[in-house]
């Protein structure tokens, strides 16, 4: 059972993509990703990112010039997205161009020159836990003292002792 209902969401994204100017190519790209063995949730991620890209910066992946690709990447960089979201969108552009121009986006397939310059490393600082951001034992003791009831005190203590945090 899929609690995220990826199949239904993927079909909805495929319907949106099919209505776009280059929809047939975009759907072929998704089929190719599935043929490569990507999970339905990963294919869904690519599908939703394609919807975002082609809604905001449409281009012809087969005949895309470097200027077209730069325009798409510039749009991605100009958005207030977290670095991992930008990473995913840039990777989608790169893989799509690889598929459109070379016929495959397998890791051994060549990357066309229009996309080879795209840097797809994410800034790790967004999700890194630093020692300064962790609670100290004194912080936890103060929270326990201020808790309104025994249940909350026990909950805070268990969360801290088990190192459970979001």
Question: Which key features would you list for this structure?
Answer:
mainly alpha, 2 domains
Care to give the gist of this entry?
This protein has 166 residues and is mostly helical.
Structural account:
This protein is mainly α. It folds into two domains: 6-123, no CATH class; 131-161, no CATH class. The chain is built from eight helices and no strands. Helix 3 packs across helix 5 (83-102). The two termini are 25 Å apart. The mean pLDDT is 91.
Distance between the termini: 25 Å
Largest sheet: none
The total domain count is 2
Average pLDDT across residues? 91
Strand content: under 5%
Furnish the topology, listing elements before pairings.
Layout (H helix, E strand, L loop, with lengths): L5 H13 L4 H13 L4 H17 L9 H13 L4 H20 L10 H4 L20 H10 L3 H12 L5
């Amino acid at each position: 059972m899929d609690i995220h209902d990826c199949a239904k969401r993927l079909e909805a994204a495929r319907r949106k993509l099919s209505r776009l100017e280059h929809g047939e190519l975009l759907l072929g790209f998704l089929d190719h990703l599935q043929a490569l063995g990507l999970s339905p949730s990963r294919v869904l991620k690519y599908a939703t990112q394609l919807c975002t890209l082609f809604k905001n910066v449409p281009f012809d992946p087969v005949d895309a010039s470097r200027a077209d690709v730069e325009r798409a990447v510039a749009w991605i960089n100009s958005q207030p997205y977290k670095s991992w979201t930008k990473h995913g969108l840039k990777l989608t552009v790169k893989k799509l161009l690889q598929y459109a121009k070379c016929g495959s986006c397998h890791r051994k397939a060549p990357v066309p020159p229009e996309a080879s310059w795209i840097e797809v490393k994410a800034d790790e600082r967004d999700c890194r836990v630093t020692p300064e951001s962790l609670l100290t034992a004194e912080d936890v003791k103060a929270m326990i003292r201020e808790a309104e009831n025994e249940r909350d005190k026990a909950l805070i203590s268990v969360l801290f002792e088990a190192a459970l945090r979001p």
